[in-house]
Protein 1
Amino acid sequence: MDDAQSTIILKPIGIVRSEIKPPPAERRDWWKGIVSEIVIDSSLTEALDGLEGFSHIIVLYWMHQAASGKLPLKVHPMDRTEVPRQGLFAVRTPNRPNRIGKATVRLLQRQGNILRIEGLDALDGSPVIDIKPYLPGYDSVADAKVPQWITN
Amino acid sequence: MDDAQSTIILKPIGIVRSEIKPPPAERRDWWKGIVSEIVIDSSLTEALDGLEGFSHIIVLYWMHQAASGKLPLKVHPMDRTEVPRQGLFAVRTPNRPNRIGKATVRLLQRQGNILRIEGLDALDGSPVIDIKPYLPGYDSVADAKVPQWITN
């Protein structure tokens, strides 16, 4: 695993501007309906051209307020202690070896280097790593199965 | 944009083992049906517990063979010269400021620290950055719109 042992360096392409500043109280779906902005580095403005044609985009961002250092490998999903501990790769906890968040959000408006979006679960000040167009045929699955604890 | 100007360091959690070694010839959907493996660092094996309950997972990986350095900000999507150049954030080209690929794949089997998967568009040796469970209600959009050049 030589390749995997080397480190990778990212340079943020922008930043999240949101009214959500502290980590919100534990509540499912708190981000629904939240409108926020992504400010892309102005040197990359042109790289957003054409994004307006998509209703939804995928945002990869750095969960800068998540825990770092040594992490528990198994956790109760969303602090639901009635659910047995799951491996951290089986849940969406921000406390991960590489704290990258992946959100699919509605693109309300693009104005120059600013994207106005709805439904982003990132805190104010989160560095943005990548923006990708959401492609239904590639990014969604028609027949996906999830364990029972997800839907309970 | 103070936060955005700092760099972020990732440490791969594993590596892709695939029969796809050179970048494949330009063809849409070449990865469909491809079965490959992700070998997770053995210190993180326990963090995969519970992933078996999901039919699909999201893989974030480093596109190590993509171009680096100074990139064109606009490109013809998939080298389709009949389509006007689009900003690189409006297409899924691997040649991006941060070369992170995001794929949704079927999880065929988990055996210890090895995930056997179908439909990953990563080349052999790609460092893996994160594994997340695919959550239909969070990761898919029912009414997403895309520009006409996508479907033509």
Protein 2
Amino acid sequence: MTRVTVWNEFRHEKTDAKVQSMYPDGIHGQISQFLTAAGFEVTTATLDEAEHGLTAEVLEKTDVLIWWGHKAHEEVADEIVESVHQKVLEGMGLIVLHSGHFSKIFKKLMGTSCDLKWREDDRHARIWNINPSHPIVAGIGECIELEQEEMYGEHFDIPAPDELIFVSWFPGGEVFRSGCTFSRGNGKIFYFQPGHETYNSYYNKKVQQVIINAVNWAKATDNIQPAYGHFDALEK
Amino acid sequence: MTRVTVWNEFRHEKTDAKVQSMYPDGIHGQISQFLTAAGFEVTTATLDEAEHGLTAEVLEKTDVLIWWGHKAHEEVADEIVESVHQKVLEGMGLIVLHSGHFSKIFKKLMGTSCDLKWREDDRHARIWNINPSHPIVAGIGECIELEQEEMYGEHFDIPAPDELIFVSWFPGGEVFRSGCTFSRGNGKIFYFQPGHETYNSYYNKKVQQVIINAVNWAKATDNIQPAYGHFDALEK
Amino acid sequence: MTRVTVWNEFRHEKTDAKVQSMYPDGIHGQISQFLTAAGFEVTTATLDEAEHGLTAEVLEKTDVLIWWGHKAHEEVADEIVESVHQKVLEGMGLIVLHSGHFSKIFKKLMGTSCDLKWREDDRHARIWNINPSHPIVAGIGECIELEQEEMYGEHFDIPAPDELIFVSWFPGGEVFRSGCTFSRGNGKIFYFQPGHETYNSYYNKKVQQVIINAVNWAKATDNIQPAYGHFDALEK
Amino acid sequence: MTRVTVWNEFRHEKTDAKVQSMYPDGIHGQISQFLTAAGFEVTTATLDEAEHGLTAEVLEKTDVLIWWGHKAHEEVADEIVESVHQKVLEGMGLIVLHSGHFSKIFKKLMGTSCDLKWREDDRHARIWNINPSHPIVAGIGECIELEQEEMYGEHFDIPAPDELIFVSWFPGGEVFRSGCTFSRGNGKIFYFQPGHETYNSYYNKKVQQVIINAVNWAKATDNIQPAYGHFDALEK
């Protein structure tokens, strides 16, 4: 059974009534709920726990880590980022959601600024499926309509993704590469744009299905850790 | 249950004693054998059958098509190539083996000459795993050692593959991108180099495992056929 | 001096007053005009000329071919498509504009249906620069605003482009990968979406600059034709 | 005129007679020599200079930075790595040579371990041209033969390169992706494998030509810095 750890900064929910009302159990609570219903073994971890809830023991038991953070990226300890980075390279899947684009771990894996344009305007968004044969879009159809979502616009300063899965349309005139896959070491990474803390995106069935599909896609197969370092010749 | 059709030109086996002795049931027979043992529902089809064994009915029931051809590529009827091409775009997986690089269907899907260097010299080959987290290499380890394989050397005139899975080393001094994935329409395509008709590559357990993995990778997920053509505006 | 051949179907301009008034010298005439001003050596060729104006002699003297076609794709002779295809593989650059997405040559190079959604609604379009360091976007800025352009929408059934350069936003709610590069053989290919026959896109200075940049990008460098076929070992 | 800064660790040359004899003016001296002859404006910088020779002023005047390091990667100050990283994202080209695969700057840009197999055995190497139409291989031909080069073998733990340019063959049985391009922010990066300190690779005319071509390829075109952050709607 695939083991998922849902990491959430969990600050907005404690201080902002609007967020609290939208996600009374925290964003991690809501994500856990639909992942558990989908049959995964789900744990949560949050910033204010010891080691941000990401101890070596927790990471050891994590097949796929989900990351939501926003206003406290800088409070994530570098040692924890190092541990998570190492686990990703060894094969732990990583799903980075929404404002997690600016997290230390995503920037470390990408090597770029991961910057973008943004605007909160309470307007709708449409996420187009650009890669209809990809397992991450199974059951999604041509697009996902969201009643409200924060605008994220290009240029998005990431390396060219290995696979471009979604491109979003915003009524203000912008576009955004809103679903992107990357491989780093043995780890598979999926960035997915929806999830502003005051909107109901994580209640949307298609958004949930994408995250469920992405967990299945990102979990490691029975793969090897290659040998590195000095190597004796195989041929005379 | 995934339904696999193994297509083989099946000419060498009828006329060449060495090939007959290596593959008494035909190359398709040997490939069928290990795919059946792996739990797939396997059918075979060969060039000299009516419609080359690839009737609309057969293609309709095929999740993944495997293609081995060599000296009679030109005898494959264009209409059959069209049907296979259409099915691939609709989501049928395609695994092209060895000299199938010069088949009409592979060239049509690639849009290039698919040409390469070659030499039969009865020497060994080593297929390096370049993409250790890919599902196609699950269980394979760092490389596959073949006692004998035909040399195929760069430059291999294909589009840049979506994913480079294997690179082969040959004792004569050549290298070759010997495992490559491509997406075309909804179809997933895997090219895999081993399989000269006089060598025992399809008895090699790792070669078999790669083909088994590739069938699982290439079969369609529950994906959509996008709508094309005139489209009414979604926004006023 | 880079030699450009601008190929145009040149039918709309003969029969439709609106197109005639927009492009009195033909779409090829307008494209030639700004390419000549940019310092290229420019020739034109059109469908109704002998061999569609694309004789072996013309192709021999063409570094980069530009292709605009729409309603008469099927009238382009297969032999000419073969010649153009062969020249692209040998290193001739190819820039496919707008409805050329459905041309025989583009479909042959892509291996897919190249289908898409479309709508003529006289509304505006915004072409976002997704790849700000690419030579094709030099001098373009963050986006190109067009007063009117035909909507082309995803899914666009092409192989994953080697490089994604532009993504378009349409007011009706659609997005489109409107600038894409591909390599096939030694040839570099650029697809660029603007250019509906009744709109003034080829008078737009930024659209012109993109095409000028693309010619410079697509022209062959001093590269080799690799040796193919039987190859003697380099090592004992 | 393109301004190149050649950065070299410059330690082996001071302590190892064999290296000193191979590169009496330092590896940076030899690289400078052929780049200057090619018409570039060349400066050098080395580890033991103040700020490793990479002051803000030097970086400001650098279009393309070349990086050779080996045994003292850890001595490069993090602040300098940050400055170089920032300049790359802004558009400075970066060419990483040989053991520079393990430099802080390359690892930071890649987000992976950049690990590999290696062996010094004084044997030859053959670098195959996999991408014959790329500007970096102009004038190179099908392969580069080196009398002696250190073996670097797969798996090479890098993200999938944007373009694979060279694959090396080693007599001990290994292969290696020895020429790879990447884009990060506005910066273009080229990794090139040859250049062990005791071998004469930087005297090889083809190796020199590749580096010259790569400088021309990596230098920024007239591109923009996109606007990031809060963004007002373009549409009502």
